[in-house]
Amino acid sequence: MSVNKVIKKVTTHVLNEMKLKGEKISMLTAYDYSMARIIDEAGIDVILVGDSASNVMAGYETTLPITLDNMIYHAASVVRGVDRALVVVDLPFGTYQGNSKEALASSIRIMKETGASAVKLEGGSEVVESIERILTAGIPVMGHLGLTPQSIYKFGTYVVRAQQEEEARKLVSDAKLLEETGCFAIVLEKIPAKLAEEVTKSVKIPIIGIGAGPHTDGQVLVLHDMLGITKEFSPRFLRRYHNLNEEIKNAVQCYIADVKNRDFPNEKEQY
Ligand code: KIV
Fold it and tell me: Which of 41, 189, 197, 198 is catalytic?
């Protein structure tokens, strides 16, 4: 008899069952092996290799500059650290909009070169053709509506989306369209809680919210934000579970002091 515990992997079907049972879905971003390993061991359901890597890993102001090669590097590192969670990878800006063949080619590269289980892309009716083509290759697709950071130059601001009736109605119809097209889940970012509740009730696929209130089927946050590594970003929806920025700085200052004072290394720390 094997002594190894069999780990039940999270799949898109598991997420569907969770919605049916009313069990909330937990999702966080990760961009590297070590962090992915920690949050997988902690029991997170879904890990998103978000294009927020462009901000938190590469230091760019927006998500636009990150490339497909960059995303593949991050995603392959994450996948090596994960046993249980479903790993979803963002298609970066410019690799799927307006050209469904390119969308499929980008998605195939992600699946082949990283070992991830699904891709995510931003937008509604404008990207349906791309979603349809990606699905023909059997690649699961997660949608993303509401605040879509890849369109920041169109909107000009990161304020709450879909507050006006017209935009709210388009969002509800886009969510239904994404479901009909075959997306297995949708991220709703920074929209009114009541609207997110309406969308969550009007589709059968799981809805994961970020800044979208408590009624969605699950929640997602950027790992570096919830751990308090990033300091500048403080939207109302963000709950910080730690102040790692300070903790890391304190630890590094202690190390510097130990080196300068000749306290490190001591007798036990040498050969
Ligand atoms: O890139 C990202 O981190 C995301 C989340 C904010 C959902 O898309």
Answer: 189
- Strand extents, DSSP E, 3-133: 25-29, 46-49, 86-90, 118-120
Beta-ladder partners of 219: 26, 209
CA of 44 to the centre of ligand 1 (A): 16
Contact 150, 63 (CB under 8 A): yes
Asked if omega into 265 is within 30° of 0 (cis), the reply is yes
Closest atom of ligand 1 to CA, residue 187: 7
- Distance (Å) from CA 260 to ligand 1 centroid: 41
Look up 129 and say whether it is catalytic: no
Residue among 49, 53, 29, 50 at smallest CA distance from 39: 29
d(CA 131, CA 199) in angstroms, rounded, equals 20
What pLDDT digit, counting tens, does each position of 123-159 carry?
999 999 999 999 999 999 999 999 999 999 999 999 9
Q: Probe ligand 1: pick from 39, 49, 63, max atoms within 8 Å of CB?
A: 63
Query: In the structure encoding, which two tokens stand for residue 260, read together?
Result: 């300068």
Q: Does residue 159 sit in helix, strand or coil?
A: coil
Q: Is 78 helix (H, G, I), strand (E, B) or coil?
A: helix
Query: Structure pTM?
Result: 0.97
Ligand 1 center–CA 237 separation, angstroms: 14
- Rounded CA gap, 262 and 249, in Å? 20
Q: Are strands 86-90 and 118-120 parallel, antiparallel or unpaired?
A: parallel
Q: DSSP letter at 127?
A: G
- How far apart CA 204 and CA 224 sit, in angstroms, is 31
